[in-house]
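Researcher: Can you fold this with zinc ion in place?
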Amino acid sequence: MTASTQILQQVFGFSAFRQPQDKIIQTLIAGNDALVLMPTGGGKSLCYQIPALARDGCGIVISPLIALMQDQVDAMRLLGVKAAFLNSTQSADEVRAIEQQLREGVLDLLYIAPERLTQVHTLQLLKEIKLALFAIDEAHCVSQWGHDFRADYLQLSLLHEIFPEVPRIALTATADARTQEEIASRLNLSDAEKFISGFDRPNIRYQIGVKHNAKQQLLKLLKADHQSDSGIIYCLSRKKTEDIAAWLSEQGFNAYPYHAGLSAELRSRHQALFLRDEAVIIVATIAFGMGIDKPDVRFVAHLDLPKTIESYYQETGRAGRDGKPATAWMIYGLQDVIKLRQMMANSEGNEAHKRAEQHRLNAMLGLCEITTCRRQALLAYFGDELKEACGNCDICLDPPETWDGSEAARKALSTAFRTEQRFGVNHLIEVLRGTNSDKIFQYGHNNLPVYGIGEDLNNNQWRSVFRQLVARGYMSVDLERFGALRLEEKCRPLLRGEETISLRKDARPIAVKAQTKVQLAPEVDIALWEALRECRRGYAEELGVPPYVVFHDTTLQEMCLRMPQTMEEFNDLTGVGERKLERYGPAFVSVINRHLAA
Ligand code: ADP
Ligand code: ZN
């Protein structure tokens, strides 16, 4: 048995590596660099934890989110790994104590934020001690073209210069080809061995629909599929996260807001509730979630459109890390498209940067509007090919109908043209539908030939037409005049009748059969299951960690099915390593024996 397999079994209690964990670990143990791209839940952490244990010295893990370091360290300590973290939340005394441990060489793993690592003082200290490796987590943060850029990450290139002999591993779950190249070049990892796994998350069901009444649509989703599940709901504004959380609480859900404007104390309280309890919903801006490794998040809902497919994939990727069925649900509308286009045009940065942003947004809109398998499109965006439609997205499960929208599109475009491309969608629809409003008369639009030519479609149908025209680049949003719709070059052939356009019918809400719930195996005795959960809850509270840090649900379920009655049998369970066997084995075994005797 290799040293790494031994660590896998004895410390982590897992029987075998997942591909390509083993190869990555061997690369590092041999002292070489690695660049790892693996989907969320794929098992990236072991790729640096095991070599850090196998090699001499301390492994340094660089991670951008200090809020999670405590939990990561707690989980390591429960396994008997000597781990610590250094960040700005600690007192001078605590920092000194950890620095002392580093000098004495007693630590296996140190988690540290990039800004801390690159301080002269820290680098000096690291030069004095033996280092096993550097792990650069969330490595896509180094990319300026990416969506999570952090300036501190750029400094990490100096690791290679100062510590040329220490192997480095960079890890990320999302990076298109361009970002991959940027990671390699900015971190001096051009010679690193690359491990690019597929991106697919087959257990996640992707659903994207049109926004009609966001709250009611959300409520329907929760009631139908996720009544007592943990989940994350993403909104664009801080105020909206608070509104939605308050409203969900009125509806009887445990929902809490999370955004950068809340006090640090409140944020960490809400995060702790989410991690520790079951059936907690966090309503968050994008500030929440990076590095969250709660395995049983059953749904991620977007009430606003993310700006890029990278963000969308990363945020939805927080669902179902345990591999069980999970939902990624999003609704969006014309207003989202207009708002995002405006935000981007007004953003800082040069023209090239803005073009890149627009390009990413267009790809996101394309994903929303497609009428073919969502997963195929998502994976194709990341350069992955899925041969067959997935059978687990809203389009595969309930294929959308399309209609020939050429005539309607021409009417919509002509109306924008006749009103001098100076009006927003609401006014254009009033003109089309021949509405008698003050504004219509004020501008004399009742005298236009297009006035009333669109009575055959209702308000929602026209909004759908305009949304699709904007999303597909036939129209654009005028930024000088708030929300005015303009014609784009692309619409000429359509107006001339040389082209037709097929639009999707989206009058109806996303109607997908309820998800199969995560269920306990039918053989599981519920009384035993509850007794084991009670036992786990006791330890979790005593240790101040989330229950899944003690044992995952899967391990608990295995206990119910195999009913180990001795420590040896208990040792065979997935997720039971030496330390957990010794600490918690006796209590759980006695729960099982009591159950069998009853
Ligand atoms: P990532 O960081 O890639 O999102 P994690 O490292 O958090 O993923 O791993 C996801 C889950 O898979 C964790 O619960 C982890 O314990 C489990 N896991 C990882 N590798 C293995 C393995 N070889 N055998 C069993 N479980 C594993
Ligand atoms: Zn599909």
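Model: Folded with zinc ion in place. The chain has a mean pLDDT of 90.
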